[in-house]
Design a protein that fits this description.
With about 575 residues, the chain is α/β, with parallel strands linked by helices. Helices cover about 35% and strands about 20% of the residues.
């Protein structure tokens, strides 16, 4: 008898079998039905074959993190990866296609289902994924009219025949799910939550994109690269509605230079890429530093070096963002860990870039970007587009030496002045110079911006007791997993300090660290890049590190276990 108010469903199959489609249908229908829901996916770097999987959590309470446990494993193919098999326990119910031959899962609870035969009855094997989603809906006793409503809306661009076949497929699976419940002494105990109706289901991909639109983004130039491509394509979908110029450049070098040209002309531009693509943009980042051009870079991390694991997750590019570009110049690195932060930080990134005339990084990763979770609807009334462009006069000097280091930024054809920039060291009027005393003044002018930037820093957020003995430290997508682990630990002596901006580092950081007797930095990389940044900026040595770099995110269970071992 399975009685649980937090159910984890994993759907596994080959690329091309529609695992992601079925997962999207499930997570959205459960949200419509009033359930707390979260989903994430892991997939191989191939168009066909391999083993891909999606994890969908359905819970009575709010959830937003990945777990190892599997309550229901739905197998669309007879193959499993080693790490997926390790998540199967004696409590896992494995639902598989009875057409599979030589399936060696005898020691587990397995139930054969007529997936292929039912799919062929509907119209072809392609419908197996929708039938599988229907099975889970049947187990949860989701209202069939709600499911049909979603199918019609989701497939509205298809013919009526295709819509009816998908409805038939869901109904066929639904009947199997009901039979499964009624004949296997099985029930689920997940309760609907009335608070879900007031929340929105969103991925960080969508949140970043919507934040950029709210920030006034009107130009994006990018060369597609996983896992950043979804931001590019989603922005392209919205381009007509919000008057955004979308340019798929021939390579990342061109994309970065197009973005700089767009800012020079008065646009609010961004690029979206992954580590390998950003490596080609680095000269452009240095150009941004010299010509003091605003720039917004969405850097979606994945495991390297080189191509690495191109469809997996990692927080391995902090150093790349921090030290990219030759020479010394200011930058800001934002690291959203929730959809809300992804939206509001992305929105304000354009204001910060415009105000301080520096490159701004929005640092994300595959796990965070492609997970779906519930959050409060984004409030555009809390956002504001701040314009710092000045109207030039005839005596305009682009690089005027100012007390705070920020020179007035004009754009062509807005005022009487001639707007010039130069990638060589230059004087106040943008002319090349080798005056060494002036060189020092210009470097100092650019670096002065750090003092201003630090006044508008995003402070770290503390979850738990300020007088804790053990302080957990995390940034970016580790946020919700650590928060949920903290709840399970239920120890008032353990707190969590979450950084949504890692550079420049908050001046309050050291005070938090010195209060704790034990500090633990949790990162999805092999060398503890943020822990090293903290030591570099504050002189404080983090006591312990919990690191993971196999291409998968931290699960709540492993965080609970590893934190317990260190406290």
């Amino acid at each position: 008898m399975l009685k649980n108010d937090d159910i984890s469903v994993v759907m596994a199959g080959e690329a091309g079998q529609g695992v992601e489609t079925a997962s999207d249908i499930m997570v959205k229908v459960f949200k419509m039905a009033g359930y707390n829901v979260f989903s994430c996916k892991e997939y191989m770097s191939r168009v066909r074959g391999g083993v891909n999987s999606s994890t969908i959590r359905i819970s009575s309470g709010a959830i937003s993190a990945y777990v190892d446990k599997i309550d229901f494993l739905v197998m669309l193919s007879p193959n499993l990866t080693g790490h997926l098999e390790k998540r199967i326990t004696e409590e896992t119910f494995i639902l598989y296609d009875e057409a599979f031959k030589n399936l060696s899962l005898d020691k587990f609870k397995t139930f054969g289902m007529p997936l292929t035969s039912k799919a062929v009855e509907v119209g072809g094997k392609i419908f197996s994924n929708v039938i599988s989603a229907g099975i889970i809906f049947g187990i949860f006793d989701i209202a069939m009219n709600l499911i049909e409503e979603f199918i019609r809306k989701s497939f509205s661009d298809k013919t009526e025949d295709i819509i009816l076949k998908n409805i038939q497929a869901v109904q066929s699976g639904y009947e199997i799910g009901k039979y499964f419940i009624n004949n296997n002494c099985l029930s689920v105990n997940v309760q609907q939550d009335e608070l879900v109706a007031d929340k929105t289901l969103v991925s960080a991909n969508e949140a970043v994109t919507l934040g950029c639109i709210a920030g006034g983004c009107d130009f994006i130039a990018t060369y597609p690269m996983s896992p950043s491509t979804a931001v590019f394509t989603y922005l392209a979908e919205k381009s007509d509605e919000f008057n955004i110029i979308v340019e798929q450049a021939e390579d990342e070098i061109a994309a970065m230079n197009m973005g700089l040209g767009a800012w020079f002309s008065g646009s609010r531009a961004m690029v979206s890429t992954a580590g390998g693509g950003f490596a080609l943009m680095i000269e452009g980042i240095s150009l941004s530093g010299m010509i003091e051009s605003p720039m917004v870079i969405h850097l979606a991390q994945r495991p390297g070096p080189a191509t690495g694991l191109p469809t997996r997750t990692e927080q391995g590019d902090l150093n790349l963002a921090l030290y990219s570009g030759h020479g010394e110049f200011p930058r800001i690195i934002l690291t959203p860990g929730t959809p809300e932060d992804a939206f509001y930080l992305s929105q304000n990134a354009f204001n910060l870039a415009d105000k301080f005339q520096v490159p701004i990084f929005i640092l994300t990763d595959q796990y965070g970007l492609e997970s779906y979770s519930l959050c409060k609807p984004f409030d555009v009334n809390k956002t504001e587009i701040q314009d710092f462009i000045v109207k030039t006069d005839r005596n305009y000097e682009r690089y005027k030496l100012t007390e705070d280091g920020v020179s007035p930024r004009g754009i062509p054809d807005f005022g009487e002045g001639l707007v010039k920039v130069d990638s060589d060291e230059h004087d106040e009027d943008s002319h090349i110079t080798e005056d060494l005393d002036l060189r020092v003044k210009m470097v100092d002018k650019r670096l002065k911006k750090f003092d201003l930037i630090k006044k508008e820093i995003y402070e770290p957020v503390l979850f738990g007791n300020a007088s804790c003995k053990t302080l957990l430290i995390g940034w970016g997508s580790t946020c919700d997993g650590i928060k949920e682990a903290l709840c399970h630990l239920n120890n008032p002596d353990i707190a969590f300090l979450y950084f949504k901006q890692v550079y420049p580092l908050s001046e309050k950081t050291l005070a938090y660290l010195e209060k704790a007797k034990n500090t633990i930095c949790i990162e999805n990389n092999a060398t503890g890049q943020f822990a090293k940044l903290i030591r570099h900026e504050t002189g404080f040595n983090i006591h312990h590190k919990i690191l993971k770099y196999n291409g998968l995110p931290f699960s709540v269970e492993e965080l609970v276990s590893k934190i317990s071992d260190l406290t």
